[in-house]
Design goal:
Elements: E1 3-7, E2 10-12, E3 18-25, E4 34-39, E5 45-51, E6 58-60, E7 68-73, E8 78-83, E9 92-99, E10 110-113, E11 117-121
Parallel strand pairs: 2-11
Antiparallel strand pairs: 1-3, 3-8, 4-5, 4-9, 5-6, 7-8, 9-10, 9-11
């Protein structure tokens, strides 16, 4: 069955960097676009970034543009999000997700997602 497992979250100070990763299995990873989404405490789902199935195109939410980089390794079935210049407002649970099309701010826009990894940005 489809499995998406995130790792790499943690507690960091503002201005720091962190990399979160996702291991995918149970489907033809290289055939599908992939996304990162996040959910902050008490808030709704927020789309963060998506990458084309072959890695040729990437898109970012305005809130993270210039600070985050999404990448994928289709040989290893992994998805990565490099996060730099982290801010307190980046605090959220980060989910690796397989979108139905490209992006979206509701769970209905995604076929599958992992259990998430907590990222906390605080002094």
């Amino acid at each position: 069955q489809v499995q998406l497992v995130e790792s790499g979250g943690g507690l960091v100070q503002p201005g720091s960097s962190l990399r979160v990763s996702c291991a995918a299995s149970g489907f033809a990873f290289s055939d599908y676009h992939m996304s990162w989404v996040r959910q902050a405490p008490g808030k709704g789902l927020e789309w963060v970034s998506s990458v084309h199935r072959d890695g040729s195109y990437r898109n970012y939410a305005e809130s993270v543009k210039g600070r985050f980089i999404i990448s994928r390794d289709n040989a290893k079935n992994t998805l990565t999000l490099q996060m730099d210049s982290l801010k307190s407002e980046d605090t959220a649970v980060y989910y690796c997700a397989k979108p139905r099309s490209w992006d979206g701010n509701t769970w209905a826009n995604y076929d599958y997602w992992g259990p998430g990894t907590q990222v906390t940005v605080s002094r």
